[in-house]
Amino acid sequence: MSRRPAPLSVPFFAPFFAPLFAPILASLLALLLALPGAASAQAAHSLELLQAEQTGINPRYLLQDPNGRSVTSEDFRGRFQLITFGYTYCPDICPTTLVELAEILKQLGDRAERVQAIFISVDPERDSGSVLKGYTEFFDPRILGLTGSPALVKRAADNFRIRYAKVREPGAAANNYAVDHSAGIIALGPDGGFIRKFPFAMPIPELVGHMKALLDSRP
Ligand SMILES: [Cu+2]
């Protein structure tokens, strides 16, 4: 899925926005929590098999954390990974998805220790380590922000079949652009293998239900 938001003149995540931002997040969360979830476990399982066969995802990345340390997909062996791609200036998709990741971690309680949530920025030019860290921590300190050189980011996105492209209005300043990007959350298992992709804005009760089932299936 791809969206084409209008380029922003100010970053979505600006400290002076925080007071405005909290009520927006609260209403977004209320909306997501209210949506019904009804997929049966059997149907979900069949869907996962189908997706694994069809996606062609190679779930590998080599990127950097906000402190500049190298992080690879192998670093989280033994734990599940929930990975989403985006950028901190994103007006809608990324905030929604990070609210979802934060809620999954919260609702899993202690079991969240077996899950690493990861936000990969496809906008390394603007998403410096400190910007990325501040952004993910706003939602939940357990969400790890990763990015890297444009080449490394491109390779990771290609591996995960994620598309992204800058969109700049004619005449806009060089650093004033939006980034179209694929949405959704990709789940990797404790063996590092691709499990499934959760579509954008799947209701939180469904996401949590799927994650509990996954944790149960691989004790
Ligand atoms: Cu986004």
Can you describe this structure?
With 219 residues, this protein is of the alpha/beta class. It has a single domain (15-35, 58-217), classed as Glutaredoxin, CATH 3.40.30. It has helices at residues 18-34, 41-55, 93-108, 129-139, 150-159, 204-217, and strands spanning 62-64, 70-72, 80-86, 115-121, 144-146, 164-167, 178-181, 185-188, 194-198. The protein has a five-stranded mixed beta sheet. The chain has a two-stranded antiparallel sheet with strand order 1-2. A two-stranded antiparallel ribbon has the order 6-7. The two termini are 32 Å apart. Copper (II) ion binds next to helix 3.
* Domains (count): 1
Radius of gyration: 17 Å
Tally of helical segments:
6
Number of strands: 9
As a percent range, the share of strand residues is 15-25%
H/E element sequence = HHEEEHEHEHEEEEH
Q: What does the largest sheet look like? A: 5 strands, mixed
CATH class: Alpha Beta
User: In percent, how helical is the residue content?
Assistant: 25-40%
Mean pLDDT: 84
What sort of overall outline do the alpha carbons produce when their principal axes are compared? globular
The fold-level CATH name is Glutaredoxin
Assigned CATH architecture: 3-Layer(aba) Sandwich
Strand order of the largest sheet: 5-4-3-8-9
The CATH superfamily is Glutaredoxin
